[in-house]
Structures are given as structure tokens and as C-alpha cells.
TrEMBL record:
GO terms for biological process: phenylpropanoid biosynthetic process. Belongs to the plant dirigent protein family. Dirigent proteins impart stereoselectivity on the phenoxy radical-coupling reaction, yielding optically active lignans from two molecules of coniferyl alcohol in the biosynthesis of lignans, flavonolignans, and alkaloids and thus plays a central role in plant secondary metabolism. It comes from Parasponia andersonii (Sponia andersonii). It is found in: Secreted, Extracellular space, Apoplast. The lineage of its organism: Eukaryota, Viridiplantae, Streptophyta, Embryophyta, Tracheophyta. Residues 1-29 form the signal peptide. This is Dirigent protein.
Length: 194
């Protein structure tokens, strides 16, 4: 049988139909999921990456990077500032100085969520803008007891090169100005990803 465009089209159509029926046979009407091997999704070997950067939280001056968006009626009388909520778009830099090379932004929300200690609920994305992780993000969701020397928050996901990410972020206050309340925080982030 000679190869003709019609034969090629027919062959491709048969392959497509077989693929569709094979896919549909993976689930029944009672199931809502499929399990795929990592290779089918294009994943290679899982790796562990260490990221190191500085987070600049500026609440003072003419161009703050974190601003209050809400507070409870009792926030100002609370010893822990309970009920305070801020939105942030903080620079992430290679070094502790504000003029150091910027590698991304920390964008999200933090709120004072403890009545017994100065503790923040952190809901944020590290949005990377430099190097091989440019355009990728890591998502953080966790408790940050800011007066502790070292704090650990979970990495709960990511995008781009950090799809299916999991891990933790370790925070250490590098500098805190008690007058302006501005802070620089050193982060070491350990993340498993494909």
C-alpha cells in the first residue's frame, strides 16, 4: 500500500482515537482523578535548591513597600498589635543593603494573628525577576514569630521552575529600626522541585 496524504491522515486519526479512548478508560464515571507517571508530565528528577536573599520591609517614608489596609477596633490597645493587616510588595535583594542587586519581590499580606505574642500570619509569593528563576514564584503560608531569632515558614507551592514546590523558608532579622519599624530580614529558603 503506497503512502498517501489520505493514509497518513487516517493513521493519525486512528492514533488520536486510540489515545482518547485509552485516556477515558483510565477513569470511570465514579472517579474524578487520574494518576500520571512523572515522565508523562515532563518532570525529570526532583532536586533541592537553596535560595538566599534579603527581604526589605519598608513601612515608613514617602514610598513604603508595606501598607496597613485594616485593623480591629482593639488593635491599638493590644500588646501584640492583634488585628493589624498589611499588604506588601517588598524587594528581595542579594545583599542586605537596599542598593544591592534585586532578584525579586515578596508580594502578599501579613496580619498580626496572635494575642499572646508578636506573631504574623504570612501569606505571600516570592516573585523572582532575575536569573534562571525569572518569572517563577514560591508561595509561603505560615506563622512568623518576628521576635524569635530564627523563624521557619512552609513553602506550600510555586510556579514556573518551582511547579510542585515544597520546602521551608528560614527567616532571621538582619536589621530592625524601632523608630520607623522598617526591617531587613535574611531568608534561607530550601525547596524541593522538579
Amino acid at each position: 500500500m503506497a503512502k498517501t496524504p489520505q493514509n497518513t491522515t487516517l493513521t493519525l486519526l486512528i492514533i488520536l482515537l486510540i489515545s482518547i479512548f485509552s485516556f477515558l478508560s483510565l477513569t470511570t464515571a465514579d472517579e474524578y482523578y487520574n494518576t500520571f507517571p512523572n515522565k508523562e508530565l515532563g518532570f525529570k528528577r526532583e532536586k533541592l535548591t537553596h535560595l538566599h536573599f534579603y527581604f526589605h520591609d519598608v513601612v515608613s517614608g514617602r514610598n513604603p513597600t508595606a501598607v496597613k489596609v485594616a485593623e480591629a477596633a482593639t488593635t491599638n490597645t493590644s500588646s501584640t498589635n492583634f488585628g493589624y493587616v498589611a499588604v506588601l510588595d517588598d524587594p528581595l535583594t542579594v545583599g542586605p543593603n537596599a542598593t544591592s542587586k534585586q532578584v525579586g519581590r515578596a508580594q502578599g499580606i501579613y496580619g498580626s494573628a496572635s494575642q499572646s505574642e508578636v506573631g504574623l500570619l504570612m501569606v505571600l509569593n516570592y516573585v523572582f525577576t532575575e536569573g534562571k528563576y525569572n518569572g517563577s514564584t514560591l508561595s509561603i503560608l505560615g506563622h512568623n514569630a518576628i521576635l524569635s531569632a530564627v523563624r521557619e515558614m512552609p513553602v506550600v507551592g510555586g510556579s514556573g521552575r518551582f511547579r510542585f514546590a515544597r520546602g521551608y523558608a528560614e527567616a532571621r532579622t538582619y536589621m530592625f529600626n524601632a523608630t520607623t519599624l522598617d526591617a531587613v530580614v535574611e531568608y534561607n529558603v530550601y525547596v524541593s522541585h522538579y
